[in-house]
Design goal:
single chain, about 90 residues, alpha+beta, Ribosomal Protein L24e, Chain: T, two-stranded antiparallel ribbon, 2 helices, 2 strands, binds zinc ion
Length: about 90
């Protein structure tokens, strides 16, 4: 048994399960093998900015596989914008 939670955001790792502040805005996709991926609202917006559209299932898989590699991790990553997007 592992302790991996399937309700964590695939990008930033924050819990998105029912009852959390991230639950209402999270984006969920279900893969053919039954794997369920969740993307929190913040990361979903970053993904839209990154892809130029709403992330589809394949994009979600890519985010899950590469994580912060897409620069979606948020926080103090610093994309050089220097501007706070508040929130
Ligand atoms: Zn997230």
């Amino acid at each position: 048994m592992t302790s991996t939670s399937s309700d964590d955001c695939i990008s930033c790792g924050r819990a998105t399960q029912s009852g959390t502040s991230l639950f209402s805005d999270r984006r969920t996709t279900r893969l053919e093998d039954g794997t369920v991926l969740h993307l929190c609202g913040d990361c979903n917006e970053r993904a839209i900015s990154h892809f130029g559209r709403r992330p589809g299932q394949r994009d979600m898989v890519q985010i899950a596989a590469r994580g912060a590699g897409l620069g979606l991790g948020g926080g103090h990553g610093g994309m050089g914008a220097g501007g706070g997007q508040g929130g």
